[in-house]
Amino acid sequence: MSGAGDGLMRVLLLTGLLAATAGVTGAAASPQDRPPLLPTRDVALDYRATAAGRTTSLRVLYSAVNERLRAEAAGQSTFLLIDGRAHTAHVVMERQRSVLDVPFDTERWRGFILSPRATFTRQGTERMLGLTCTDWKVSGPQGSGTACVTDDGVILRGAASGAAPDGHEGTAGIQATSVHYGPQPEGIFAIPAGYKSIAMPALPTMRARQ
Q: Which CATH architecture has domain 4-197?
């Protein structure tokens, strides 16, 4: 995969660092000790994502009823589709009219979805974009981070440092620049008709920590 596909995959891998910090083993926190792990309403969000010294605009669309997510970087014709119920993930490349069936790995793709294995510590509340969110400190064996999450499970801001899912150390952050609640058209989460499947390239894996 090259061009736009490479760019989107790099951004998603790096923002996935936000979730890798939450990869705690052992018992999950009780529901009252953590924010909602998924949005409870359909929502469309624009994010400013920063990773490895680069800033990218991302759009994330989520269907709460079907647990489907679409993420795309500004100016690119490649987008990611995740189906939480079917446990599938696809990278769709419109210019090539092609699609990659990629492994459904929640730790790899959880840049915008919180992990049930996280350790969360409540810090306080803030107002952003006219919405109230709770600041949470998130910790795990790969690093630490923070997330400001609304009561209905929307991440408005997140930051982390540690080991990203591709094995590289670094920092990453996302901040919402717009939030729009409302039904999301089912078609935006579907692979376009007639697209061909192509071979899956080797993806980076988490290197063993010394």
A: Clam (2.50)
Average pLDDT of span 180-196: 93
Is the pLDDT assigned to residue 5 strictly greater than 80?
no
Per residue in 54-89, pLDDT (tens digit) is 888 889 899 998 889 898 888 888 888 888 888 888
Q: What are the strands of the beta sheet with 155-163, ordered from one edge?
A: 119-128, 131-140, 143-150, 155-163, 169-181, 43-51, 54-63, 68-73, 78-83, 88-93, 98-102, 196-197
Question: Which of 20-29, 176-185, 190-199 bottoms out in mean pLDDT, i.e. has the lowest?
Answer: 20-29
Dihedral-angle region of residue 22 (phi above 0 means left; psi in -120 to 50 means alpha; beta otherwise):
alpha
Please tell me the pTM assigned to this model: 0.76
| Domain residue ranges in the chain | 4-197
Residues 6+ apart with CB under 8 A from 8: 71, 72, 73, 76, 78, 79, 80, 91
What is the Cα–Cα distance from 178 to 130, expressed in whole angstroms? 10
SS3 label, residue 61: strand
Average pLDDT, the chain: 74
**What span, in angstroms and rounded, lies between the C-alpha atoms of 11 and 13?**
6
**Beta strand pairing call for 43-51 and 78-83:** unpaired
> How far from 186 is each of 55, 63, 65, CA to CA, in Å?
29, 8, 10
- Supply the DSSP symbol for 182: S
Instruction: Give residue 132's pLDDT band: very low, low, confident or very high (50, 70, 90).
Output: very high
Q: Which residues pair with 45 in a beta bridge?
A: 60, 179
Output the six-digit token pair for 183. Answer: 């039904």
